[in-house]
Sequence to fold (748 residues):
Amino acid sequence: MAVPAVAAPPPSTRRVRRSYRGWQFVGPFMIVFALVFLAPIVYAIYLSLFRNRLIGGNAFVGLDNYQQALQDPQFWSGVGRVGLFLVVQVPIMLFLALLVALALDSGRLYGKSFFRVSIFLPYAVPAVVAALMWGFIYGSQFGLIGNLNDALGITLPDPLKPSLILASIGNISTWQFVGYNMLIFYSALQVVPKSLYESAAIDGAGQLRIIRSIKLPAIRGALVIATIFSIIGSFQLFNEPAILRNLAPNAITTYFTPNFYAYSLTFSGQQINYSAAVAVVMAVITMIVAYVVQLRGTKDL
Amino acid sequence: MSRFIKVAAAASAAVLALAACGGGGDDSSSAGSSSGGATVTDAQVDAALQKGGTLTVWAWEPTLKDVVTKFQEKYPNVKVDLVNAGTGDKQYTALQNAIAAGKGVPDVGQIEYYALPQFAIGKALTNLNSYGAESLKADFNPGPWNSVNSSGGVYGLPMDSGPMALYYNKEVFDKYKIEVPKTWTEYLEAARKLHKADPKAYITNDTGDAGLTTSLIWQAGGKPYQVDGTNVTINFSDAGSQEFQKVWQTLISEKLLAPISSWSDQWFQGMGNGSIATVATGAWMPANFVTSAPAGKGKWRAAELPQWTAGANASAENGGSSLAIMDKGANKELAYGFLKYANDGDGVQIRVDGGAFPATSKTLADPKWLGDEFEYFGGQKANEIFAKSAQNVVTGWSYLPFQVYSNSVFNDTVGKAYVSNTTLADGLKAWQDQTTKYGNEQGFTVK
Fold:
């Protein structure tokens, strides 16, 4: 304020001009980035430091909400549930996606483009529609399961009962995202030079050896990326439980997943501040897990 | 003030992964209104109606559409903007957001009786006593009137009410020679007999419904909620609650309840095809039968609610809603004029003609209304049963000032009794504990 810009010596002027040019390019992005990315996060953190009550109003409570979240058995049961989902569903889904990608890449599949499109198709179905559709399929009274029971005179286990609901949700996610991951792997495989395969064949390598020694190492980066996306996706599980809850209100609790818990806290209990703390804690957990996977996955690339 | 702004944006910002929900409504008026607690006379209300203006009303009750049309004919200077902002919970969420944001708040909102104390204690509503609402007491049935009285004020005018009745599929009952149950013990017997005769048929559906549970405890004379300002007592071990638990636990344990949630497609299918034989709910139900379970036409009848004590004639309310004036709304005199018209004046008949169940005592005594024959119920004069139920509602019931939250965790706690070995008693205890914890966190003194 006290130093007028005009009085600046020539070298400094040059430096200022150079930095302006850079900001002109980066500026628009930075503004949007700050507005839609940083501001909500900062705001959520700000909110999480207060507590607004029906009686007594709003007060600054420091880290109390965080302390409460870290000791909240409902929150941790949600984290545990998505953790279990992660270690079971993600490997199955990625393995299936890899299998399909390798099959398509092998060039020995008849009707390759048909398979590619039809496996990718579920990804194009909106998540909400997919959950509704599967909800109908899972219906043991009037849904597909119910119809099968009637037609065959059998009693299939109810997919919406508490002990099976997580597996049923895993099934929906797998159905939906195998195609997406397959596409990532498949495009990574496409850029591997074909000459490598030829020379491997000349050296006497079989298909399995080619996969193990050439293809898998070549798409390792893609594998890591797909894994990280899947981890984040698992931790953010929300659509399926939110929709299926209408059909299975007793199997899916309001704290079924951390995200759904944050949602319930905000919209049923007006506990906006606590919900913000839960969201922040969950974001930190997600970042840590994703970062660890990334470090390990790219360690000796 | 700033606290509202904070809370408002929180709805979108807090939950990072969720899409924003924003402030709910859009338009609404800007000019702040007068009357801070001062008494407003009928003459002032009339003057406001003649002068006119714009009113925004958030309601999902379908019969209000006709009321608004007629209201605007009578007061041509008034323009009413009727908005359906969602049913029940969904509307409350939108309303809470608008209140928190301090803008887009409607002038008038439809609020169910169970949710009214929560909005009243949150200072979101106008106390209608300053408009002389107390003098309208005699116009309404005691049950609904009791429901709009909260923390020493009148916070809405009753719009409809839900004295309970037992709706049953007569065709199914006749087929298996089952008597219409007079007590809940007989109801249990009927449930066993029916399910044994046809394993695909159930006496009723239930997957855990907070509204039904509290209503039946209410009918049994239980008073689990005691509210005195911010001092609240919750106790699900009183005699009435235990009465309910005994019968319902047996229904659950013997798998006599269809695992179908109310208001689902399966529910209406079941009522149409005879696999759900009874529904115990409010007197507002017939219109839903007609539109959503047309296959049951002529087969269903209404009966008095089964009793907990043989020979008694106790009843309870299930559902029902009021129209309330928002504290942050503009033009409150005009809003009160609309409330009186819709819920106490000409509007009542318009809504009754449209199939709504009234909260006004005059209608309940009207012979023409009592004599209405319900086509869906095979020409039965069902209003006689409903009117009797309305007069027999057990007095002294109150809901919690945080009932909306409490009901939202019903399936987390009591719901376990429906799908696991947890007993209903343990479930209710867990519900009580979690609700108590929430109440204390929110600054109430809950025991």
User: Anything to note?
Assistant: Chain B has two domains: 2-14+35-161+319-364, 164-316+374-446. Chain B touches chain A through 49 residues (CB under 8 Å). Chain B has a mean pLDDT of 87.
